[in-house]
Amino acid sequence: MDCLVDRRPRWVLERRWDAARPLPRKTILTGSQPPVEPLDFTSRIHALTADIAARCGEFAHIDPASVLFTFTPSRTRSKYGLQARVTPMRFRDGQLTRRFRGHTYQVQRYYVDNREVLYLVTFCLPRFLDQPFGEKLTTVFHELYHIGERFDGDLRRHPGRYCMHSHSKKGYDRHMASIAKRYATGHPNPDVFAFLRGSAADIRRDGGLSGIHVPRPKLVPVGWSA
């Protein structure tokens, strides 16, 4: 009897990291002082987010333990282009799957120490580091504000046609800059965001930079996984 070979591509539906299989790390800037421990950028961003969630009511719904902070290398040293992005791990209203053109799709699910990741926040380095301090802090707020108010893996959606940045992206950016300035002014522990004051050259000189680097999750046709 002839056997039919299923030649459809296959993807994994889940990726898991733990003590036995730690999150992959990568050095993006090699320090000029090799004995010095490189700056752990993604851990610093995680700590900054936890502080923002504790101090700013607009971000109190964010649980940093369910957010994975990563970086992607910038392809050029131009200061223009992608600075950061938020990748939601669920569809609209926190749904696991979505029907599109006759197929059902699911976002790959990520787990760290058996805890599901609901958002992936990625910074483009070293490009992001070469922005002025105020713009860097505003970018952090800009990306965190995209996280849905229900914290269900979906993005925050504004009324109207332009649901991601409201009707005016410039107005959205001004609002984020205002919140960032309010947060930083008179902060009792400015060390929590002091690492954003240095440029890529400063960080390279002081010991370099490393962080978590994972692949961007894929949309997987359900039933085609392995």
List the helices and strands and how they pair.
Blueprint: E1 14-17, E2 25-30, E3 39-40, H1 41-55, E4 67-73, E5 84-88, E6 97-100, E7 103-107, E8 109-112, E9 115-116, E10 119-125, H2 133-145, H3 169-184, H4 200-206, E11 208-212, E12 219-221
Parallel strand pairs: 1-8, 3-11, 4-10
Antiparallel strand pairs: 2-11, 5-10, 6-7, 7-12, 8-9
Describe this structure in words.
By secondary structure, the protein is an alpha/beta fold. The chain has four helices and twelve strands, in the order E-E-E-H-E-E-E-E-E-E-E-H-H-H-E-E. It has a three-stranded mixed sheet, with no helix packed on it. Strands 2-11-3 form a three-stranded mixed sheet. Strands 4-10-5 form a three-stranded mixed sheet, covered by helices on one side. Strand 6 (97-100) and strand 7 (103-107) form a beta hairpin. The two termini are 25 Å apart. The relative contact order is 0.26.
The separation of the N and C termini measures 25 Å
Question: What is the strand tally?
Answer: 12
Helix count from the secondary structure assignment: 4
- Largest pleated sheet: 3 strands, mixed
Low-confidence stretches: 1-7
Helix/strand/pairing class, anyone?
Answer: alpha/beta
Quaternary structure classification: single chain
Shape: globular
Helix content bin = 10-25%
- Round the Cα radius of gyration to an integer and report it: 19 Å
Spell the H/E element sequence. Answer: EEEHEEEEEEEHHHEE
Residue fraction in strands: 15-25%
Name the average pLDDT: 87
Widest beta sheet: strand line-up: 1-8-9
